[in-house]
Write a structure and sequence with these properties.
The protein is built from 6 helices and 7 strands. The protein is of the alpha+beta class and about 250 residues long. It has 3 domains: about 70 residues; about 80 residues, Immunoglobulin-like (Sandwich); about 80 residues, no CATH class.
Length: about 250
């Protein structure tokens, strides 16, 4: 009976083990599959992230390579001279049109400025025409020598009147505050005396209008008697008057 009970217990335990063990193996296998799948997914994820990161690093390296490529700077040296006499032009402005930065010539007209190939260099000075030249692209050496002449330019300025008073009202106020004394008034009247003005007028030489009129008359007289003998001045009363004045002044004795 005991054997029967023991064999029954063993058969029940074996049956339960047979029932339980396959489920446990399946669960373990499922866990292993899931873990392997998760590891695989993690590996793919990390691989994708690594590829993206490597691509970004490569792109950044290319950008940095492009940015840090050395740019050849060309040193431009030369002189600025006048166009008519080739004299050195001091304190002329020399600048790059690209960024409006530059330098000035010294007292000897010399300048030196860095630039890039293709830049436009502008040279200007007050009273001279502005000139510009381009830096060639095919220079063999990183330097360039230039002699830039500048032609003279005429600058017309508007007419300006400079007064010591800023406004008319200010002039009126200061003029009324002068308080001219009778002595000053008398001095002004003496300076405006007609006899004194006539004496000064006689001492002053001919003005431009009188000289021009006399010159035109002389040229007309020469053209009138061109190719023939002019008339004799023995009957000229003006010549006789001058002769008498010369005798009185003693000019003929000299």
């Amino acid at each position: 009976m005991a054997m029967t009970s023991s064999s029954h217990h063993q058969s029940f335990y074996s049956t339960w083990r047979l029932r339980i063990t396959p489920n446990w193996n399946f669960t373990l296998l499922l866990n292993l599959k899931l873990r392997r799948l998760r590891n695989l997914l993690n590996m793919k994820w990390f691989t994708t992230i690594g590829l993206i990161f490597a691509f970004l690093l490569h792109a950044k390296a290319q950008d940095s390579t492009e940015v840090t490529q050395p740019v050849e700077v060309i040193q431009i040296s030369g002189m600025v001279v006048t166009g008519d006499s080739l004299a050195p032009l001091a304190y002329a402005t020399v600048f790059r049109s690209r960024d409006l930065r530059g330098t000035m010539t010294d007292v000897n007209g010399f300048f030196s400025i860095p630039a890039l190939a293709g830049d436009t260099i502008t040279v200007s000075s007050v009273g001279y025409l502005t000139q510009a030249f381009a830096v060639p692209m095919d220079l063999e050496l990183p330097r360039m020598n230039v002699v830039q002449p500048l032609g003279r330019d005429t600058v017309s300025l508007e007419e300006a009147f400079i007064y010591p008073w800023p406004t008319r009202e200010r002039f009126r106020e200061e003029f009324l505050q002068l308080q001219l004394s009778p002595d000053a008034y008398m001095i002004a009247q003496e300076r405006l005396d007609p006899a004194a003005l006539y004496d000064r007028l006689m001492e002053v030489g001919r003005d431009g209008e009188e000289v021009y009129s006399y010159t035109v008359q002389q040229q007309a007289q020469q053209s009138y008697y061109a190719g023939q003998l002019p008339p004799m001045n023995i009957f000229n009363p003006v010549a006789w008057a001058k002769f008498i004045d010369a005798l009185r002044n003693g000019s003929l004795k000299r």
